From TrEMBL:
One Pfam family of this chain: Phage_int_SAM_4
Lineage, top ranks: Bacteria, Pseudomonadati, Pseudomonadota, Alphaproteobacteria, Hyphomicrobiales
Coiled coil residues, start to end: none
The name this protein goes by in its record: Tyrosine-type recombinase/integrase
Keyword field: DNA integration, DNA recombination, DNA-binding
CDD domains xref list: INT_IntI_C (cd01193)
Amino acid sequence: MTQLRQRMSEDMQVRNFALNTQLSYLQQVSLFARHFGKSPDVLGREDIRTYQVYLTNEKKLASGSIHTAIAALRFLYSVTLERDWAPEEVLPFPKKPQKLPIILSPEEVQQFLGCVLNVKHHAILTTCYAAGLRISEAVQLKTTDIDSQRMVIRVEQGKGQKDRYVMLSPKLLEILRSYWKVCRPEARLFPGDRAGQPITRDAVGQACAKARDLSRLPKPVTPHSLRHAFAVHLLEAGADVRTIQLLLGHRSLATTAHYLRIATNKVCATSSPYELLPRPAPTPPPPAKPQYF
């Protein structure tokens, strides 16, 4: 490990960055350095601009991927290398397209979960929907996080390294108890193949893809789709946005408010003006022309 990589790693550690963020930033800076075959501390503003053009025009990366690369370079040059550049001028973020997730209906969620045949996979994917958890949060659950006395689930150190509590559905509790009787997990609620380690996100993702194929649903389904469905279904059932924000662990209320654009009871609450138009009288078809040949 080079001194520069070590210093950047330490700078992120003292700022308590999430481990996944640290690894992602280090990878992006490594790709940047390899592109030029030089250490980043000898590269300048014009090199950064050239790299941004390369990512956009040649690599044709999605704006989200470019956003991650730029965030990593911003941290490197403004924090670790302490360059006196204005990050927003040298490293502008690309504009992200505003896309709405495709939401499963309650019936589609039930159909999908009914096709998850493995007991452990069924339990964890049901938990993702019933509690609105991120997959990274669900795989880290411990058996002691399930509080059946207070009917809550403790989410320890979720995204942003924040603890929170979410509801424990009585139906989910029944599923988790049935799962426990079969698999007998100890410390980890959803253990993986390696001793002491949780099930991997990839394993859950593969189980999700297999169940989606079995269900023959026309919509894409991922573990995060279940979290989206949790939020929208709560909103459609009358829960307020602030409560949903707390349950999802969103830092900003604006992030949660995006679901207002999806919930049918919000979007469809007003009738289309077309409904106000009088029904036109049916127009009779024109008389058929005689055929002479």
